[in-house]
Amino acid sequence: MSSNHNWVCFDCRYSKREPKSTNFIPKCNSCKEDLYCLGYKVAIPKKTDLKNWKKLKEDCFKRSMTVLERETINQVKEKHSLEKEEIKPKFIFKN
After folding, report:
1. Whole-angstrom Cα distance, residue 42 to residue 37?
2. How far apart are CA 5 and CA 91, in angstroms?
3. Per DSSP, what are the bridge partners of residue 16?
4. pLDDT tens digits for range 29-73
5. By percentage, how much of the chain surpasses pLDDT 90?
6. 41-44 contacts: CB < 8 A, separation 24 or more?
7. Residues 48/82, Cβ–Cβ less than 8 Å
8. Domain ranges of the chain
9. Closest by CA position to 19, among listed 8, 7, 4, 1
10. Whether the predicted model's global pTM rises above the 0.85 cut
11. Contact call for residues 52 and 38 (beta carbons, < 8 A)
12. Mapped to the 3 state alphabet, what secondary structure does the chain carry?
């Protein structure tokens, strides 16, 4: 049985707890945009705590950029590895 995750809308400072599902992303009740999944351990600031909502949004952005950068680096490494395999000689001639 999986735990409920925290889902938030940074613009409306709305949050709700729902199971994390790959086929369904909850929507914000106010603006109807997709909610952002924070996981189940991240503390949600009070709706009136603008400073901590801003910090939470910045932290999430940095985290997602780090993941994106890591994925990009891995894709480049994989492509480079494939290119090196193509360059290797297919036959080795002995003298």
Report:
1. 10
2. 55
3. 7
4. 999 999 998 888 888 999 999 999 999 999 988 887 776 777 888
5. 40
6. 42/6, 44/6, 44/8, 44/15
7. no
8. 4-87
9. 4
10. no
11. no
12. CCCEEEEEECCCCEEEEEECECCECCECCCCCCECEEEECCCCCCCCCCHHHHHHHHHHHHHHHHHHHHHHHHHHHHHHHHHHHHHHCCCCCCCC
As given in the structure block, the two tokens for residue 37 are 């999944």
Relative to beta strand 14-19, strand 4-9 is antiparallel
Residues in the chain: 95
Confidence of residue 86 (pLDDT cuts 50, 70, 90): confident
